[in-house]
Amino acid sequence: MIVITNPTPVPNEMEIINSLFENGLELLHIRKPDFSEIKTALFIHQIKKKFRGKLVLHHHHQLATEFGINRIHFTEKNRSTNKPNRFSKPVRFSTSTHSIEEFNTLANDFDYAFLSPVFSSVSKENYHPATDLFAAVKKRTNFKTKLIALGGIKSDNINQICNSGFDGIALLGSIWTSSNPLENFKLCQKTVLSY
User: Domains of the chain by range and CATH?
Assistant: First the structure.
C-alpha cells in the first residue's frame, strides 16, 4: 500500500507521516509540486531517518543521493524528458499513467505505475474516470510493471480493486481529507491485507 502526500501542507503532517510508517506504510510518495528544492529538503529532514528508504521523490530528484533515497517517480509529463537510465543504479522508478494503453507501452525501467483515476477523486474536484478502468485492465499486456490503482480509493471500495487485476493501491485524498488519517489508513490496510 502506497500513500502520496497532499500537494499542499496539512496540519500535523509530519506526525501523521511518521505514524503511518510506524503502522506499516510501505512507501510514501513525496509530491509537493510547489515546493522549492530547499523546502523539499526541509520536509524530508522531518521524516525519521529509518524511514527514508521508503520515500519516493516526485520532484527535485537530485536530493535522492543526499538523503539516501533510492526511489524516483516520473510524472506522465516528465517521463519523456527525463530518462530513467540517466540515474545510476540501484535507483528504482515509478511513473503515472492514465490509460491501460499508455501503461502497456511503458519501458521495463519502471517497478510500478499508477493508473488513475479509478474512481472519482476524493481530493480533486470534478476529476472523474474518463473510461471504465476496471474493464480496461482486462486489456493489460504489460506484466513486468506492477499496476497500482489510484484515485477515489476508500476503505469501502478497496475490495473492488483487489478483485480486478490491479497489483496494489495508492491513497491520497482518503488519507489527507480524513478527520483521522491514521485510523483510515489502518482500515484500508486491513482490507488490503485480507487478500
Answer: 2-193 (3.20.20.70)
